[in-house]
Specification:
seven-stranded antiparallel sheet, five-stranded antiparallel sheet, 6 helices, 16 strands, binds ligand Q0Z
Amino acid sequence: MSDALHVGSGKVRELYALDNDRLLLVASDRISTFDVVLPTDIPDKGRVLTGLSGFWFARTEQIVPNHLLELRDDGRSTECRRLEMLPIECVVRGYLAGSGWKDYRATGEVCGHRLPEGLLESQQLPEPIFTPATKAQTGHDENIDRAAAVELVGEERFDEVEATALALYSFASEYARERGIILADTKLEFGLDADGRLVLGDEVFTPDSSRFWPADSWRPGASPPSFDKQFVRDYLNTLDWNKQAPGPQLPDEVVKQTSEKYLEALEKLTGRKPVV
Ligand code: Q0Z
């Protein structure tokens, strides 16, 4: 770690190069909400998200190979194969939320998928849809249709990525639903190995890359609380914060409740506590 070169920062994760073929992905305990990273850490969050990703990578190997090489003893760092990442975000939506809901309300479509009329916010779609987006360097990813994504990755690769992403979503969403969690949508990232084979990278089916909803508080026409950030959102809504950085510090009680939600998600889905 000490001699690893820092090659990238996400809002709450860091990426280092170990050598030509391997990267180290480190998940911090930072939390972001309304696109702003808050000054207060959430104990165990990085290890929970790393544990969840590791769990799903192991469970989905039969669908597609992935970049994971090994989990380090700190529980928050994973060594992974360095890939040539595809220039699209691979989003699958089973429910209408976020930008999907926004686009549907404006046009009746999401990424070129024409949907039935009269759907409500958070409603389950007739079937999951693949809704790719560009990878914005700054600002927000932009939803794109099939033709625009084909321009970026080619038709054959698009078809392969779409089928693979849908298969991964079906698998994980059915698994989660049996355990009381709705996986409303998810963002996957794929890359190619040296032989041009498709490999799943980044993080998978974590609350930072997916919308997790508690199944018992979901109903069409409302916007369910996110499984993990509900206490943070509720607290922030009691302040008159303008949702611009810097965000406010969180009270101890909110930190504790939120940390417990992450551990609850890990336990519900994997049946285990984080690796100590
Ligand atoms: C992932 C990201 C993060 C900042 C690049 N296996 C891989 N091979 C090549 N590149 C990547 C991966 Cl995972 C890769 N990102 C996203 C992660 C911090 C950006 F932890 N960027």
